[in-house]
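User: quick one
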Amino acid sequence: MKSRSKLVSLLLASSLTLGIALAGCENSGGTTPPAAQEAKKDPPKEEAKPAGGGGQAAPAATTPAQITEFKQSPFFNGKNVPTVKDRLPSEYKITNEIPANQMKYEIGTYGGNLRTVTSVVDWDADVFVMNNEPLLNTPGILGDEITGNVLKDYAVSDDQKTFTFHMRKGLKWSDGQPVTTEDVRFTVEDVLNNTELTPIYPVWLRGGGVAEGAPMKLEVVDEYTFKLSFDRPYGGILIRFAIQGWRGYTELIKPAHYLKQFHKKYTPLEKLEPLIKDAGFQPGEWVNLFNDKDITNWELTTKKAIGFPVLYPWIMTKSTENMTTYERNPYYFKVDPAGNQLPYIDTIQSSLVQDIEMVGLKTIAGEVDFSRESAALIKMPLYKENEKNGYKALLASMHVTPTDIFLNQTFDDPNWQKVVQDVRFRKALSLALNRKEIIDTVYYGFAKPGNIEDPTFDLAQANQLLDDMGMKKGPNGKRQTPDGKNFTIPFEVGAQAPDIVPLTQLIVEMWKQLGLDVTMKTIDQKLWNTKRAGNQLQATMIWTHTPLWYMGDWGLDLWGNDWNTWKTSGGKNGKEPPDNVKKLYNLIDQASAAKPDEAKKLIEQVKQEMKDNVYYFIHISDVKQPLIVNAKLHNIPSDAAFAIAANFSGEQFFFGK
Amino acid sequence: MINYISYRILQLIPLLIAISIIVFVIIQLPPGDFLTNYIAQLKNAGNDVSESMILNLKMQYGLDKSMYMQYIIWIKNILLHGDFGRSFQYNQPVADVIGPKLTLTLVISVISLIFVWAVAIPIGIYSATHQYSPLDYVFTFIGFIGLAMPGFLIALILIYFVFTQTGVAITGLFSPEFADAPWSMAKVMNMLPRLVIPVIVIGMSGTASLIRVTRGMLLDELSKQYVITARAKGVAENKLLFKYPVRMAINPLISTIGWTLPALISGEAIVAIVLNLQTTGPMLLKALMTQDMYLCGSFLLILSVMTVLGTLLSDILLALVDPRIRFGGVAE
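Assistant: Done. Structure below.
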């Protein structure tokens, strides 16, 4: 009862704020609601809005004309390219990747080569994150404010159904061709709305971000302005354009001038056939050809990205057996407040090694200038010991929870379901987790107890709860189900991260203290993936993106696989979840459709639901992640920032003396 | 003889067909396929993988067809066009993936093989002729260590030792400035000193076992009557040794060509991973782990063909080299 009344008041509070927010109607960085409303009626004023300066110490951002002189890297001296002023868009962006409270921006100097390492063919997460450019931007990936990025700015209608976007005048692809609304029109009309190329319309581009919503509609206003409209309120689209899912500009802007030569509508099929054959597809499969030639942001580190027009800071120029080279994009649209065209660093070289351990060896030998993805907390002592080799091993925040614990409440076993669906059972297990011990043993103290759920450690209370449930000990000394059947928690984990196996071992021991029968097995990651998809994992561990509120990652398919299937299939498959779970789903859906400030409040409600129901165990948070950077590298955010946000701001890095 | 060879070659055809089917099926036995793997990787990284994307990828990779159709297309392209299909991971034709790695693998393997033979055979002969001498004990001791210690462990110890002593990380065959450069004399010269460690590590166990085999075989031969007779008739000791018993003793070199040939191109997977060598071994391992089926299928097929051909070759060579086998065959 108590929790319910609390919930009611929360709902009341949030609906009140919702009303206020709606009255505000505009979603913008820093403008007051009345001004914003005015701006809506008076389009020219909008342009004075988040033109890209954001929270940075760069008031110049709002009036681009203040920078009169632009500088370029000596890299281009003597190269046959237009002057820097002609290459930059007239509405350039003043960089604002990291909020001012996380980093003091230094004006950099040009030059240098940044070395990264990866152990996966055609994929380097560090380069991907550094190079990826979203349509909009949220400094520090915090989701606090949303500013322009590839798109100059945006305006939201009162009903949150229509979004007006302005593009940057003079923005150019890396081959010098202009970027205009024609690229947007091509992407929406000829790719997204083409049922051959897009057999299933993406849910996130439907109204409200739900499967029942109608596909978005595009209206091209002029060469640099377009509108997107949805059939239901969808303020959440902005955060999706800015960061969620690491989406890039390719979702909405593809180089039409380049891709038209592979599209049936613009190039007759007869002309495409030789290309189709060359690419190794069967005659007539122009769709495969197009998809092969269309490089999305996730493919920017693959060999075939060479020659594809992009908007990234660096473009791939060479890819050999063991090294991929990227060079600065002459047409990149960001400048620093002093008028220097970014990035500062001229080239990136990503080496490919055979094994992730080799990344560690290269790191401690000082052969790496930036490493995030492959750096592991358990190697921190080793990194520190060898810092004399010219790098710094920093600790920054991790953008995922280290590892959460999941009990699948829909695993196909009635006895199991009966026990695990009882909230008392889950609370008892949560009470039996000694978070301090976990943090000290597995994370060397670089983490905090999770604050979403109750972090209390109280074995007596936990035992009491299990006793109340009627889980008495059987002849083998282990607790049985209330009906007197044997009960086991069988963990099956894949070793996706180095902490998963030791953490599971620790938790097995903790839960055994309650008299439960707990076992663990490490299985192949592929088998794990298959079992996960097939509702066959009973108890497991994996990380979630819970610390980033906008990711909307609540591990739904892991603690209630059948229920989640029911949700994603619109009730066609899976099993209908109980009301409390439906309520949670509803809140999550609402949060993903709402604009950021409302969404954050809804997320608080989701967290409250998590706290009340302990659907899964988010026991640890705020874990630190090592960030290996060359000792000379500047513009690295403080340890309060997410490591991946630092990675994201790579165009701001520069080598000091 | 010609009859024998052509008969053997005809025998190979059904064998190779069977091998190709088994290889193809076994690769696909583990749950899921390359795509499920790839998609899981994207999801773990926080990407919303849309169903459209999955469908498109399936079509692009031809994974929407049945396994039986996939096999037919694969084999048809190999036989008719010499096209081994595309590697999913590398997004390149299989031949383009294997080709560049093959050169390096062959260089390392051939040098290792020469190293093994050059070191093991003289030592083996010495050990046999000087049985139970102090040096024989020393070689036997080293030989057993080489046999007992896995190559990757030796490699790890070497890496650790070199790193702690000199601060240099052995991370490949080239120094950074050459890693990306096209082949040139300077690049070869840059590679040679770095080749020493892999060659020694890879050759270690081979050397050790070959010493033991040569020693054992030679000891056997030395006590035979023809040796005693020859010695009694006053044949010079060196001539006696090298003309007859040693020739017998190195027979195993020929009879194992069936394994040596594929070993030349397969590369030592684990050692290569530890030493970060861009050879075919780690490539095959990764291809198997990610179910990059055309890459591993084609490579395993090539290895099988090499094994089968190598066995044939060793049979023929043995007959040529060893008169007893040759005459034995004729008598039949």
